[in-house]
Amino acid sequence: MRAVIQRVSKASVTVDGEVISSIGNGLLILLGIEEIDTEKDIEWLSKKIVNLRIFNDDQGVMNLSLLDVDGEAIVVSQFTLHAQTKKGNRPSYIKAAKPEVAVPMYNKFVAQMKTDLGKDVGTGIFGADMKVALLNDGPVTIIVDTKNKEL
């Protein structure tokens, strides 16, 4: 499971001209799921994200977590995070989970985030043509992969 985590001042997801999720201060999380991902990956990644100290404290030091700042989150499924570009110029997505695996895992991840964060979490619509808008704060962008845990 791979996540691109962006600290945002605001973010939104629009599908067919309708805003389906929007947040203020918080995190936009782009989530890529592999066939080999497990419930342990979901639990580890969710806890890692809500506890990452990437928000500024009173001294301007990144020392506060999403929980500390009472921030919001949006989770958007993005299979292209598992693109393989070793051969040729057309990325291969063979490592990305098929929808029958990815959709339940995505839903479980969102539910875990809600539990760990203690509030609702915005989402995209799996498989839809989404327009994601964000105002990256910092900018701060972190990539976390459960297959390469840096504890």
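That was protein one. Protein two is written in the same sequence-then-structure order:
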Amino acid sequence: MPATLAVLDDIGVLPEVEAAGFIRKWGATMSWGREAEPWSWYFKETNRRFPHAYQVWRPRFDQILLDHAADCGCAVHFGEAVVSVDSGSVTLAGGGRAEAAMVVDASGQRALVATARGLRKWDSAFRNLAVYGYFDGGQHLDPPDDGNIFIEATAHGWLWKIPLAGGVSSVGAVVDRNYGAGEIRRLGLEPFFSGQIAASKRTHDLLGGAALRQGPTAVRDWSYSAGSMAGDDFVLVGDAACFIDPLFSTGVHLAVTGAHLAAAYVATALSTPHLRAAAGAAYERLYRNQYAHFRELARLFYASNRTTDSYFWEARRIAGSVGDVPRAAFVRAVSGQNAAGYERSVLSHGVLPGAFLRALDTETAARRARHMRPSATTRVRRAFGVAVRRDMVLGDGRFEPGYVIDGPGRDELPVSGLVASLAHYADSETLRAISERIASANEVDPARVAESVLAAAHLLIADGLLEVVGTDQPSI
């Protein structure tokens, strides 16, 4: 994801990734939704800083990250397999032990800590099975989509085709778990995989003349999350913490951004032990918010497909209203104000319940109406259920005490002290009066505060956190 590149840039490894020769991914192309005709969306529509991402070859990408860790001073040991983790120490396959004040479990889907402690919870909403392999040759989409992932809905699920460097393609088929397991037992793994590709309309054509070079491999029941992601002596990150359906290729993104948060937790826990518990709770809350966002959007996208009718698709359609989807995920889908940014494009090509579409129109209109610029005489109040609270927020490489604004069905929003004061004092007062109260409390000139208060109020009103209750008429 483009947002992943921002983290890689922050830790100083992005130049090495850019120089590795990975294919640039400008977006995605899908045969999905109301019609089978392919359509595309592009990162540049919502991300100006990074209008593209990369189709990485994982062995090379992971090696780049490992080498960078070593360059930063990390002691790297090769060939030392970990077989168990217990109270701040790890047991190695050779019988040795390594002690640590904090263990970061990045063991992938082995999920050593979560499995050993019975923390892993499987997700009943995504009981799918994937079969994937790598092909030499074949064709990619036409430019400018030749670097895109191609996703094609089929009768029994969907296929992905990802172009990699050197003329290699990653290809996978996602189907219902019970159907896939039964067919694999009946046909065998490779014939089943070949049959899923042959049943597609476009993926099959793109792979004309291609040869399977590796695989196929089957993975089932892979969507899950750990009941606890952080403790006094451990933190889970990446697939060791959670994994969601691969519809949006979010595995690397969750791993990298989760590692960014996990590093902040470890730094905080080791340097300021009295903040350990609060920092761990903040890590878990922020990481789960990301996971939940992609999970609910995957549910929405599955529900929106109408290109084919089968048990697979009928079982994944949302028959109810927008109430089936958390409000935070819904608002992000409407506004596009999120890390991924492609929700609006995909939803516009899908078929969703009438109640959802009506709510979509209502929220879109409300956001448009709220996009007004307040003045000093505008009176504001907090929206229903919105509150300001002290909590741990992500600072410069660690968690630190700060302020957040949140409310029913909303993700928390970390804010500065000034914005927290604005929301705290927003009780049908004018913005001028609020500016004066903030200035008095901090013993500063009100004129220095007023401009920042107006700018912050504009954003909070647009996001529905503050409501306008009127405007004082200037006296004559």
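The radius of gyration is 25 Å. Keep this in mind for the problem set.
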